[in-house]
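Regression report. Comparing outputs from two consecutive submissions.

Submission 1:
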Amino acid sequence: MYLAYPVVFLTALALAAVCSPLADRLGYRWGIVDRPGGRRQHHGEVSRLGGIALYVAFIGALALSAFLPETWLPPRLDPKELTRLTGLILGVSFVFLAGLVDDRYELGPVPQLAIQLMASLIAIAFIIHIKHVNNPFTNQLLFGPQGLPSPLVWVVTIFWFMGMMTTVNWLDGLDGLAAGVAAILCALLALHMYREGQYSVVIQPLALLGATLGFLPFNFHPARVFMGSAGAYMLGFAMAALGIIGGAKVATVLLVMGLPIMDVAWLIWRRWRRGQAPTREGRDHLHFRLLDKGLTQRTIVLGYYAFSAGFGVLALVLGPRIYKVIALALLGILGGGVLWWANRESPAP
């Protein structure tokens, strides 16, 4: 157990706890607040600059780790690790700043997609990409040791990053939902990396875990501050990147984020079938549908936590990849059942 682990985690936790009230005040001072109306049913104005607290905590903790004594730090075994860390920091910084612009001016779908695409290209430029894919039935690499062809690497990686940023952005609809699910994923990624001997990269999910847990008390229902687009984009990019940096823990990310990902796919298909723009705002997200069914915010959020944590633990305890495929299939069945029930029209009284 390296001393850098608790130092980085506690630093991020403290920074987020200190900066969250400041982000709350800045939102009111700059007029960047969410007001009730439409799909927003909270009471009164709420600052949406919580992304500032998440960003400062995450980057601040990572920056501190560069100044810790070498004896506190685990050795770096991968010569490309610093390159990927640089890409993580640059990518997170880019989406954070772009998200702040979105929080201030409420950009349309095209600029938002352009931001996600640019962030994906930053990741690829710093070799945070999906190059190798295992066949779960034979446990052998598809396309051999050379990995996926370059065009396919670009397509798969861009799809992965844009999909994760969209998923987290759409998940951020109830107080504490996105931040809590992100914390669960970070904790599981840190455990997974540590167990597999990837000691030096454990620092990165620990920093994000501290940031989300420090922010969560101010974001849990009733929220004092929202993370906004800056926080949602930052979490989505960081989670997508950590799933790759940590030795391709994509299956872990899919199991933890399975229900939100299914909701995004369901919404896109449903809106397309009805001739609606997939990117439009609405109350047809799963968490809103559950709210309309009569469940309380806390019940829904805790249910999401349990769902994500349960399948995330399966990613840790299941050894052979074929078992993870079975777990993903079970996730699909249970998640599909939840989506069907939530979208089922209630009978007329």
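Submission 2:
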Amino acid sequence: MRAGTGMAALWAAVFCAGAAGWLLSEWDPALRRARLMLVGGQAPDTVQRWGPGMWRGLESCGRAVLAPLRERFGWRIGREALCLPIGLVLGLAAHSVLPALAGAAAVPLVGRRLRERARRGAADRRVSAVGALCGTVAGDLRAGRPPHTALAGALEDDGWPDAPELVDAARLLLAAARFGGDVPAALRAAARQEGAEGLAAVAACWQVAVDGGAGLAAGLDRIAAALRAERDQRDDLRAQLAGPRSTALMLALLPLFGVVLGVGLGADPVGTLLGTPTGLACLVAGGLLEWAGLAWTGRIVRAAEESG
């Protein structure tokens, strides 16, 4: 009986370790960018072949299982819902309710991290969109188009109305550009969104130089160049920080491999950790130390990103 439980715990631990590593690293933009740089700009075959498909399959299963809850209670179900089946698999393998409870407790924490990552990704896309908009408007102004027409055309050409993170700003700017509204005011209002702060500089240039298209085009070129330099610096910093993040992730997963090693040697570490007072105390202490280490590493990385 113990051998069967041990093998089940072994496979469950291997599955959860792989899932955790994949979720935390493969979908981290900084880590993915670093790996793509190391392989010459080409995504590995395994990522192209299995990564997106596996993720869509797992997410579809999770949504199919939890869709009734969303329809009945209006809950928003995202990728963090995968913590529930992972906790249930571990709980069934270890014959304990603690992994299932831990999986349920991890749902809001993972959801907050995923939302933070999505927020930062949307902000980065806004920065890139503002830089592209400045370059497009400057080119249209040099081609002889009026400022309002150039702005409206650039918004549509760069896809602002179709991008979810830009649709609100596009609505304000298109209305002002097409119907002769106060474009600087609309630009300042759109600049309140995270990542779109460059529109405030565009508003200042517009207000000062709108009567002379050449002057406005030169100012927009300088804004676009500054945004590109800022984006390149941020990408380079994140690529450099991908190494420490990968190391922290690997160290965080080492305790799971220790459990797998113990099971492979014929011991029962899962039963000891979940079924004895001493094991529970060690599990709680190790979990707290693990959380402290990850929080400390994350704080250092965030401080480096903010200072850069």
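Expected: both submissions complete independently.
Actual: both completed, but the second showed a warning that disappeared on reload.
Relevant detail on submission 2: Residues 124-231 form one domain.
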